[in-house]
Amino acid sequence: MTGIKLGQYVHGNSLLHRLDPRTKIICCAIIVVAIIINYRWFYLLFFALLMAAAIRASGMDTRFVLGSLRSIRSLLLVTFVFLAVLTPGQPVWTLGILQVTREGLTMGVVNLLRLIILYLGSMVLLMTTSPMKLSAGIDWLLLPLSRLKLPVHNFSTILSISFRFIPTLIDQAIAIQDAQRSRGAQFDAPRLGMRLKSYLAILIPLFEASLLRAEELGEAMDSRCFSGHPNQLRMDRLQFQAVDLYILIFMLGLLAAGILIPILL
Amino acid sequence: MSAIIEVKQLHYTYLPGTPYERQALKNISLEAEEGDFVGIFGPNGSGKSTLARQLNGLLSPDRGQVLVCGQDTADKKARSSLWKKAGLVFQFPEQQIFQTSIYNEVAYGPRNLGLSEDEIGERVRQALHMVGLAAEEMAGLTPFSLSGGMKRRIAIAGLLALQPEILILDEPMAGLDPAGRGMIVDIIRQRREKKATTLMISHDLKEIINLADKIAILDEGALVFFGSTGELLGRPDILQRYRLQLPVYLQVVYALREKQLPVKPNVGSIEEAAAEIIKLHP
Amino acid sequence: MLDAGIFMQNAGKIYRSQNGDKCALRDITLSIRPGEYVGLMGMNGSGKSTLARLCNGLLVPTAGKVYVNGLDTRQAENLQEIRQLVGMVFQNPDNQLICPVVEEEIAFGLENLGLPLPEIRERTAWALEIMGLTALKQHAPHLLSGGQKQKVALASVLAMTPAYLVLDEPAAMLDPVSRRELLQHLQILNRREGMTIVLCSNEAEDFMDADRLLVIDQGSIYLQGTPPEIFVQGTELAAIGLAQPEFYRLRQRLADTGWPVAEINNLTDLVDLICQP
User: Fold this and answer.
1) Which of the ends of chain B has fewer CB neighbours closer than 10 A, N or C?
2) d(CA C110, CA C159)
3) Chain B hits for A4, Cβ within 8 Å
């Protein structure tokens, strides 16, 4: 197993780790709604700082996580440039046929902040919530939908099987890579064509193994009378505590503030 | 005869500096002469597979030295081409099959060696023959529809086609039926006759007790035994601790010797053991 | 047929595909009664895996019938009950475990049956206890060894309290120590708990505890009898590619020269016999 990866659950005992996964998921939903409704830069900046504080509070290496924003820098750059140039309004700078408008700059910054908030928020969620708790939370939240005869339990089964097999798949991929290297596959070859061919030598066997795995898992599940039943044991472990309520109230308050501010100002 | 593999005080740690840090190999020293067949045993997690990867250049030592065919694995360049000389057959090698024809699958290694198509064809034919398959019948078939045992043979043929001076097998018999296990033993026997070096990681001492020149036993990364089969048979404490089962005929012979009966201890087969037993009551 | 047991009457299975038909099983008639420990021995491809899957309705016969406690496996409405009666453990330890945590895996079958939570907890704790897995109950499956994974698979089947336990080469991918542990568990389940066991394997040594052994070759029952009765038939076993257990090969050599080894079935007895003046 390789070291800690971005977006992967990291064991810890911070406040954020101890929160109920449902709280965290609902907060993420609240954040999404809040930042869509409101586009005041100070409001968004506040949220961005809140996310950074959350990362700090979760015991994660803040520089590491903030530094990882670099991985979406092209997305951020493209978003900013497109909005700056394509938003109609009062031009501040012209370059040939391209016009950078004042509104464009504002929208650019606003959406940059939105992307950053979403990115950091999802990092906090994924890194402080174990896959098991996450799928239990999703299971519980989707429960009302099952009354509508939607196959929500199958969905959460798919999720939990995926989580269960991610480490196995990673280990398998590494083993296959080593095996192909031992037959002369070049993964660091200078030519892109050779590298791609070598990666095919990992992807195809992995795919084949996954197909076989799906078949055998299906047999094992059928043999134990698989049906779309909720996972009571897992959901039973979810414990909603006072601190969860306070955090939810706080976030709802922020959302309310976001709605009221444009009206009052 | 010079040692084709020399391992001197090898230390290796996985993922140093992370919470998953683990010392996989501790102060391992052993060597193999050209043409030797070395059996490597030990409980799960004792470092056997890690040692195998150190010998074919996938890994290099943190401390100590590993010399394979005279080359030091600390040298990155030497490591990157070591696969040509030390072929490593992984556990469940059938999982690495990815070509659509058996021919291309077995030819993958030789193609990476840069050989001519004629030579590749010859090597594929020979390699398939060594695993008990006829190239003419099998070459065009697709490997994915075959049984697990057949796929294993093809995967092994893929490594044999490299014609490596050293062949390292990581638990090649896992999940194979008796016929399949016999095939592996035949390969080892043939290599020994040609003075080609082979190392095999295994759990089954019975299958190879008469073939092995040397036996190494690892436990939690340390080498707890390295010597000849004869020396190992003289260490019942080790046999018991690592639950290495002797062939039934040897167990009988040893039990009889414990009861002070005059049977010679170094019998090599059921027939010899039976002959010894029959001599007791003519 | 309302008797307790797994019964096959002239059962056959043909797989149809574009490449032609493959007959995996032909005309199999057998009965497995409650409390028995039955072995199915055969080479890979002999049909024993197909036979195992007929027992719990994963496959239905294309000819003949299969009954479990009087329930016909070809009737879809019976399958839920049949699969509660017949628990199955497969060869690949990894490809049976779907939950991120051992305890949940064991509860999986019980959740599927819609049992109330207190009963799920109780049965899960019991299954963990029998298989000695209580300490591992919060572990993730990918961190377990092959032997431990198979024990989890077995525990998750036992939690459903089946009457019959069918195992398709459960130890094939395990190291010898884990293999022996698993077989020991099976023996305890059969002797102490009265569990009916059907074990498929191509290793003769796995069948030492079986009451009865069926040797399958090319889809038919080739030999039947108690393990000692089968193991002495060295030539017949070799003819279909199976290895006679070493002990019996040695015994045969001695028998050939007139030694009275007919009643000797284990090493200790053999040694004692040789030691006699």
Assistant:
1) C
2) 7
3) 18-19
Residue with tokens 């700090």: A56
CB–CB contact C271 B252 (8 Å)? yes
CA of C72 vs chain B CAs: smallest distance (Å): 31
Which runs of consecutive H residues, i.e. helices, occur in A182-241? 192-223, 232-236
Domains of chain A: which residue ranges? 15-130+240-264, 152-227
Partners of C150 on chain B (C-beta within 8 Å) are none
Mutate to test the interface with C, among A139, A215, A233 (most CBs of C within 10 A): A233
d(CA C106, CA C121): 10
Chain A hits for C121, Cβ within 8 Å:
233
- Distance, in Å, from the CA atom of B95 to the CA atom of A176, rounded to the nearest integer, reads 7
The chains found to touch C (3+ Cβ pairs under 8 angstroms) are A, B
Say whether C173 and B175 touch across the interface (CB within 8 A): yes
How many angstroms separate the CA atoms of A81 and C227, rounded?
79
Alpha helices in A68-191 (DSSP H): 73-86, 102-128, 131-146, 152-181
The burial of C153, by beta-carbon neighbours within 10 Å (0-12 exposed, 13-18 middle, 19 or more buried), is given as buried
ipTM for the predicted complex: 0.91
pLDDT averaged per 10 residues in sequence order, chain A, 265 residues: 58 86 93 88 88 86 78 86 83 80 86 90 88 84 82 82 88 94 89 88 94 95 88 84 92 90 78
The pairing of strands C37-41 and C196-201 is parallel
Q: Cα C207–C213–C214 angle (5° rounding)?
A: 130
Crossing angle of helices B248-258 and C267-275, in 10° steps, is 40
Report the amino acid identity of residue A15.
L
Q: Could you read off the pLDDT of B50-106 as tens digits, one per residue?
A: 999 999 999 999 999 999 999 999 999 999 999 999 999 999 999 999 999 999 999
Adjacent-strand bridge partners of C9: C65
**CB atoms C275 and B203 under 8 Å:** no
**Cβ-based neighbours of C207, under 8 Å, separated by 6 or more:** C39, C41, C199, C201, C213, C227
Q: How distant is the Cα of C225 from the closest Cα of chain B, in angstroms? A: 22
Q: Determine the distance in angstroms separating the CA of A63 from the nearest CA of chain B, rounded to an integer.
A: 17
CB contact under 8 A, A182 and B83: yes
Least CB–CB distance from A224: residue in C95, C140, C156:
C156
- What is residue B201's three-state secondary structure? strand
Contact list, A132 vs chain C (CB under 8 Å): 100-101, 104
Closest by Cα among B151, B199, B164 to B39: B199
User: Do B253 and B263 touch, CB atoms closer than 8 A?
Assistant: yes
| Residue in C193, C222, C208, C192 with CA at minimum distance from that of residue C42 | C222
The closest of C212, C237, C246 to C227, measured between CA atoms, is C212
Task: Report CA-CA distances (Å) from C188 to B244, C13, C191.
Answer: 24, 33, 5
Determine contact, residues B106/A181, Cβ cutoff 8 Å: no
Predicted model pTM: 0.87
Computed on alpha carbons and rounded to an integer, the radius of gyration of chain B in Å comes to: 20
Sheet with C220-225, side-by-side order of all strands: C86-89, C164-168, C196-201, C37-41, C212-217, C220-225
